Each structure stands twice: as C-alpha cells, then as structure tokens.
Amino acid sequence: MEEESRWIIAARKGNRLAFRRLVEKYQNYVFTIALRILKRREVAEEVAQDVFLKVYTTLDSFEGKSKFSTWLYTIAYRTAIDVARKKQLPTQELADERTGNWKDDFHEDGLQRVSRQDLQQYLKQAIDQLDPLDASIITLYYLHEKMVKEIAEITGLTETNIKTKLYRLRDRLRETLTQQLGTEIEDML
Q1: H-type helices in 59-158, by residue range?
Q2: Burial class (CB in 10 A: 0-12, 13-18, 19+), 107
Q3: Which domain holds residue 145?
Q4: Are 39 and 113 members of one domain?
C-alpha cells in the first residue's frame, strides 16, 4: 500500500498527523489552483484553507474511484470558482507570486536574448491575463502535469473540450509571448 493511501486511511480514523501530511503534500497545488482562478493571493490563501477544511470533513466521501489528487483538485477548483462568482472578483495581474516551477521545455540555443527566468515571468504574466478557467486548465496540464481525462473530471468539461482549449490556449500564449518578446520566442516554444 502506498504511503498516501495509508495517510488517507489514518486521516479517516482521525489521525491529524496523517492529514497534516496530506496537506503538506498538496498545499502548494491547491493554492496554485486558487490563485490562478482568483488572482489575489490573500483570497487564494483563504480558499486553500477552506478547501482543506472541506477535505477534512468530507474525507469519508472519497471513494477511490479516481486519484486522491483529482478529487482534491476538483474541490479546490469548484471552491475557487464559487468564491470568484460570489465576490465577482476582477481579473488582475499578479506581481511576484511564487506558485511553482514551470517545466523547462525550451531549447538552450533559443535563450540568447531572453533568460529562462525572464521567459517564465512573461509566461506567468500571459497566463494571468487568461480567464480563470483557461488559466486553470493550463496550470493543471503543464504545472501539475495532469492528464486531459483528469482535467475533464476536475472542471466538468469533456476531454474533447479540454484538448481544444489546450490547443487554442497554446496558440494564444505563443502569440502573446511573440508580441512581447519578438521572434526569438519561436525558437523556444
């Protein structure tokens, strides 16, 4: 039995240390999802806390039909969307939020004018300009390396819709980055 499964079983029996380990494992992911949707750090932190409270109180309802992470991300996604709707939060650019490391899929020789760190910042800013659903999809797929099927389960969209959105979002991000950085970006993407 894998370690995470043991933590889940123990947490269901009231073991707070086991639940704390689950929180420690997933807190950055939950926060990142909330931040991508809500665009405000303080609200995202509150939502992340609310998500783990919901998880703690509903852990018995986790049936294991999907991965625990998928179940957790679904709760995080829906909670953040609900808060965004209730508060009617405007989309705003994030200044300097640390939400994780983007996968480095870029070619070394294409980094002559733009450093990897600069590119990540431009990419983050471009994602921040997307609507919350699109930003979540990109974040789940690239940052959290979720499969299309899992993203569909989390968001409630079809797999075909997710694939179409990913294709269009990649083009949109490429276009945005090309406008900001010029042609050198083409070698990197």
Answers
A1: 68-87, 116-128, 132-138, 148-155
A2: exposed
A3: 101-189
A4: no
